[in-house]
């Protein structure tokens, strides 16, 4: 426990409530934003079966986001529920990973992005299942079963594309090269992460990268793709610094609640 | 082989609703290979907890009877009621028959 947070209210796991709330926003926002991206494929996927597959994954991610954001809203204690957090926060208040908000591009960009993210979620949720925060651990355990399938689906496609035609291989490798600079953020802890790791709530993020890389390398080997060399990694999404694409994504996602506050089905 | 969806094979999908029941035909879908067919079947036909097990088989691997042979194949059974086990009395309390 650091000096800065020692006076803040603690939760049952012994970490500052503010820190836990921040973590839940990060987890929930990454799932929510990626779900919205996947939803953009509905009606545009190469086959109706893929339309369903992508939207099924999106709905799983929305379910995760609901659980994380609801919990965050309760901890925050300002009366914001999952909907208020999803639909009434601006770009700078969003805490998602930069990888999650990257544009869909072509099918290979979407599936490479998904595979990088799914493999990360699988490592993260497996570790979070042992979190000192019981409620977080419970959500992670449920999400892990979903993520296990997501990995099968997205890694299967990365192999098909990478080991497919010359054109699909070229596009998959290009997608991997372009997205690589957004993968470092997943394993880069800030002060909040560090305090939560110390409190046993969050696994050490850098330590997750070993398992992630091992799983990814196995996929890339089957896919005949080359893992890019590590260079500059973009960070800042978790602190609210996003690319310009997120604003447009939120404008579409939040339009109804902004135009007709409180509208419901 | 090209992998555009237009070249994907048609698969028939069979889903077992609960342990102990048999697999029932639920529909068909397109996929590049059996593994993708299973994933598509999962995503298309088990979204609402319809199943615990899936079979897929390429539609062109199914041999089907010719509808024009239906009379020759099936009508001879019409007048053979003695083949139905209706002459047995079922003891009370026996379920599942």
Describe the structure.
The complex is a heterodimer of chains A (265) and B (97). Chain A is built from ten helices and no strands. Chain A has 265 residues and is mostly helical. In chain A, helix 1 crosses helix 8 and helix 5 packs across helix 7. Chain B is of the alpha+beta class. In chain B, 18% of the residues lie in helices and 24% in strands. Chain B has two helices and three strands. Chain B has a three-stranded antiparallel β-sheet, with helices on one face. In chain B, strand 1 and strand 2 form a beta hairpin. The longest helix of chain B is centred in the middle third of the chain and has 12 residues. In chain B, 16% of the residues are buried. The model of chain B has no long low-confidence stretch (mean pLDDT 88). The chains are: A mainly alpha (265), B alpha+beta (97).
Radius of gyration of chain A: 18 Å
Written as H for each helix and E for each strand, in order along the chain, the element string of chain B is EEHEH
- Classified in CATH, the superfamily of chain B is Phenylacetic acid degradation B
Radius of gyration of chain B: 19 Å
Count of structural domains of chain A: 1
Question: Could you name the ranges of chain B where pLDDT drops below 50 across 5 or more consecutive residues?
Answer: none
Let me know the number of strands of chain B: 3
- What amount of the residues of chain A lies in strands? under 5%
CATH homology-level superfamily of chain A: Ferritin, core subunit, four-helix bundle
Mean pLDDT of chain A: 95
- The number of distinct helices of chain B, counting runs of at least 4 residues, comes to 2
CATH class identity of chain A: Mainly Alpha
The backbone outline of chain B, from C-alpha atoms, is: flat
Average per-residue pLDDT of chain B, rounded, comes to 88
* Low-pLDDT stretches of chain A: 1-6
